[in-house]
């Protein structure tokens, strides 16, 4: 048996043997990743491979395919022409079989898929977007979701996912805010570790695991003006302390792959930043996995960043800096062979990249088991367990921002007629977020569906006429033709639930998709409601179109007014904050979001979501993230620096009381640790979950520090009257920061330890740290 085919040999032995057998063409083939949906044709369920794909396999091979099962306007894959769960698995088997049987060395293909909140394929479970997942503050539940996503993806043959997104959001005008967990690096780091654990499991060669790809490395969420892929102006200390922190945690957890960001930092594009890709990632962190570009990133070096004269020089720069594989494969496939022939690229550099690709394939067990069971795919994907999990996640991540006079929860027995009004009340695709495949209406539970189901299940209310509906307006545009009907409906009701916000629903219109990268483009089409998502950045944070005007007109009726936001970034609408009786922030809650929202509105679930991103009073306050420096400057003429709703904020239907925090010792040395504890009691009349948050302040430091930094949290469920003792350990990891030498240090001195329900509602105890 050939050594590389012998599973008893080590990965290193198999890689070196296989590499020794490969031609230059075959090596380069391993570094390219064409678009997977272009490899086959689906004719009413009859799947055939395209000739161009066959030729590429036979002429040198293909290392990977991107989005073989991706369905969206970019791919042109719809519900009508897309592949079901079973058909998708069969298609991947067909692709793998041809690659293995018709290439000289029989190397399987690495199938890479988008899975930020569910596998982006027909039939896949659509979980809430990461911004809501972060708002759950439930690391264990998120890990469980990642396990479900891995099962669904691997069941169809996907072996690597381009998630999690670990960008730290600094300007929520950025359209990709919804793809991120929030503004705090510690919280993101905890979720990053959970993501790697959930996706990759105990071993990558199992039938229910996939390789995680950390993105976007790095600083992508801090772009100039909140514009996608804009320049990042950041020093090394901030980069190390904030943006690199979650990536480091995920690399320590064993992440198999990483994706550099499109942006530049201090003039150097991340795609060719050897300081990041070699010194920090490889040497300092010891990362041995695969580095893959984002789509079109190498092209941008010669056309956009303009740090390369042409595609040849861009490709050489990228692979020399540490890139192993190119998503799309256009530049590597076209120029690397020429670069080697002309002496512009050393074969050793090429070989190193190939080693990393092959090593991942061996670790994933693709040489032993390249095929999947189509019957199992049909059973696993979108199963009941995953649907229940999607509903639980949505319910735990919805944040109650306002509840004047305890208007919520509502009761079907006493609420009377309910009017559900707004463009997101019954628009299924709008509540799913970006990077979502097309969905049949029957699969997505809208807010209207959820509220109607509450009345249908009620023993005291039998008539579905209790729930009235009118959309009122669109997300965008200035048409008010639906106002009259909406006001008429609202006038007949006792309580009005306004479901407004945004949309990241990509459309199938020409000219609204960047055909090279798949990102959306700003469109003048009046029928396109997309105001968030990749490539859709905004100048303001207010409601788009005439939504605010619709709310104001309905409010004049004097009815009880509940506002539900479904959106992908914070909404700054002072009028709504002041005039609504209750406000729910639901982000994009996924396919079960409507039921989860109804569960909260009617008290079947006590809201426990907490904000992971500050909501400003006005866009002019930006940046408004909580952990800015103490020296951030004075207030504006018009307004102070405090957000409308602070980081960690969220209301409950019950109340919680905190005891005074206690330290196990009031002092410690820089090499020791102490414990801080607090008793938390549910003092209300119903069960609920509280998110207990730990913040630390370094009182005097050699380098300026934030006023408070999150360093611990726990979500605890408490019955009425129940008390729980919560403990946090405080040591070097919680007290250190990046010092003058750009290395972590713990300085002696005074520290304030804060514990409470959000960053602006804590109790403090002092800790003295002495030199060891």
TrEMBL record:
Query: InterPro entries, alphabetically?
Result: Cellulose_Degrad_GH3, Fn3-like, GH, Glyco_hydro_3_C, Glyco_hydro_3_C_sf, Glyco_hydro_3_N, Glyco_hydro_3_N_sf, Ig-like_fold
Which molecular-function annotations from GO does this UniProt entry contain? beta-glucosidase activity
What is the scientific name of the source organism? Paenibacillus amylolyticus
Q: Does the keyword Hydrolase apply?
A: yes
- The protein's Enzyme Commission number: 3.2.1.21
Q: Name the family.
A: Belongs to the glycosyl hydrolase 3 family.
Give GO BP annotations, semicolon-separated. Answer: glucan catabolic process
Q: Where is the Fibronectin type III-like domain?
A: 690-759
For this protein, the record's SUPFAM superfamilies field holds: (Trans)glycosidases (SSF51445), Beta-D-glucan exohydrolase, C-terminal domain (SSF52279)
Q: Which UniProt keywords apply?
A: Glycosidase, Hydrolase
Q: Which domain of life is it from?
A: Bacteria
Which protein, by its recorded name, is this? Beta-glucosidase
- Decide whether keyword Hydrolase is in the record: yes
